[in-house]
Design a protein that fits this description.
18% strand; 3 domains
């Protein structure tokens, strides 16, 4: 099982607090981005999980404790996860809930079992004034970054968000909709009367009324444009 880290947000923390049912497990740990420092991170994580286990065994039976700690132990064995950590880690577990947050700042080691999640350190991060997001757009890729005064990290896009500009423009994605053809607008000859669509607003009605009284171009312009019109249509067809 590959558990992907989430970046903290007000909505995620609010939903996390609302869904919590005791016992609530909160684990904080500093992590490292690079080898060989990050080799010790899984070991320190397992030591913190043991502290959670000791606290749980004081009030709960061993089989129930093993069930609650199973996602924590699965995470501890995930090598891919530990090779892609940031500067800190916050993990929350409760009946039916397991959330992992990657932090761009280091935190102190902490393992708490309580009736609610210990989220005060995360709320302090959110209240920091130096957090910002960067949206990078190109034809081939759409990327979202979050950073502070020290680092800038890429954030995984939510499901359903287009992965490149072409997918957004052409409306191609998970919906399976067909491509919408976009054609260049046809050049209108100066002597052609444009077909004005039925007005749908007061401003459109006023514009249509003014356009109806525009003077016709001189006859020499109309004759010249009439000769050139077939060539334009061949080029634009």
């Amino acid at each position: 099982m590959h558990e992907r880290m989430k970046m903290i947000s007000h909505n995620l923390l609010t939903a996390l607090s609302a869904a919590a049912e005791p016992p609530c497990l909160s684990l904080y740990q500093p992590t490292h981005r690079h080898h060989p420092e990050n080799q010790q991170d899984p070991i320190r994580f397992r030591n913190l999980v043991k502290q959670l286990e000791q606290s749980l065994l004081q009030k709960h039976e061993a089989p129930q404790v093993a069930t609650m700690l199973e996602p924590f132990r699965t995470l501890a064995d995930n090598r891919d996860f530990w090779n892609n950590t940031l500067d800190g880690l916050a993990v929350f577990g409760a009946p039916g809930v397991f959330q992992v947050f990657g932090l761009q700042r280091t935190v102190s080691e902490l393992a708490i079992v309580a009736d609610s999640f210990h989220t005060k350190p995360l709320w302090r991060f959110l209240q920091s004034t130096d957090r910002y997001q960067v949206l990078a757009l190109s034809l081939d890729r759409i990327r979202l970054f979050e950073g502070n005064r020290d680092v800038l990290d890429e954030i995984d896009l939510a499901p359903g968000v287009p992965r490149n500009a072409r997918a957004a423009i052409w409306n191609v994605g998970s919906t399976g909709s067909s491509k919408s053809r976009i054609r260049a607008p046809r050049k209108i000859c100066c002597c052609e009367r444009a077909k004005v669509p039925a007005p749908t607003s007061p401003s459109a009605s006023a514009w249509s009324a003014r356009a109806a009284h525009l003077p016709k171009p001189p006859s020499r312009w109309r004759n010249r444009c009439a000769r050139q019109r077939p060539r334009w249509r061949r080029l634009l067809s």
